[in-house]
Design a protein that fits this description.
This protein is mainly alpha-helical. Helix content is about 75%, strand content about 0%. The longest helix is centred in the first third of the chain and has 22 residues.
Length: about 375
Amino acid sequence: MRDMKFFVLFLMFIILSSGCVYAQYEANIPEEMMNREYALKADSLGKKILAEKGSYSTGIDLFMRSATIYKRLGGETDPDYYGAMTLLAKCYMRNNQLQDAINVLCLLSDVYKKNAPVSEQYAIILDNLSFYYSMAGNSSKALEKSKEVLQICDQANLSKQDLMYILVHAAENYAAMKEYKEAIRSQLRALDLVHQLHGIGSEMYIEELKYLQQYYDWADEKNKAKNTAETIEKLEKPGGGVPSADELRTVKDCAYHRGDAYWCADYYINHKVSANKALEAGKYATAWCISTDELSLEIDECHTNYLADSPTEITAYICSCLIIGQTYEVKKLTRDMERLAMLWTVKHYQFNRDILVNKSSKLDKLVEYLENDTLEEKLIELFPDQ
């Protein structure tokens, strides 16, 4: 009988304790403020604090308030509640309160495990949890969460970007627990996504290659580590990440290599045309624009009037359009976007004019406007809305 009484008291303690843990992350909201308008204002201020790296303790209070309101009004499955709780955890992490960040995401993961166990949101919660556990030095728990998220990735409808980070974190967690074969497998999958999203010449791709080299070393795969080191050395040289345009034969090829195309366009725009492989980079970006179905370029008479005499600047304009199109995820650029592309083209011409054999008197005139800070106004006149 005495044992039963102890068990009941212990059970009540557990229930009350879990309630206290939950209540710790709720705010006392006056009834007159229990509305979405107030929650949205709190969210907005909290996001500003995160963006500007302000007072994270204030951010904690704001997101705690908005999360409480969203949950009270819309229930624990309200998407706004999910967002506020995720940002609350981020504020705790930024404020060096890692255990609180972990507790908040554990509470949130319980909600999604019960209501949407294969959702994108649940996958991201688990990945964030693995990251926070890793930051807290709990490698075994971090790997446990990584394994959980990897089990649902195929069904969770994740973006390539989210899956990339999940795989990178998983590789780190496997390596921390000395499971090097699995670390290598996850890192290779992550690198394929980095390639697709950012290109093989990108800083991110090179950085993740360095981790792969490290995992090969730890797994005692010395030849693969050596080959990876050689690849890194090649890519780190100017123009080392420019691939051959011959690989862009189909729409499917272009979809896979959109990151390479962006990187090549950026490389061309930001280097002298005499730089190593700059012309090849421009050729690659142009080939991508010709073969892709993701971008439809129209170079009308207004453009040809200024670009026809300068092939290097036609390429610069195409590269600019590619960057803007991918950045804003549009198939057809607006006139404002085309004017921005032309502005970048004039800057590219100005940057290269001293080494060009054939200069353009028309682009020279636009450079004068650029140097007088009147080019943007002039472009509105020269390239009117259609």
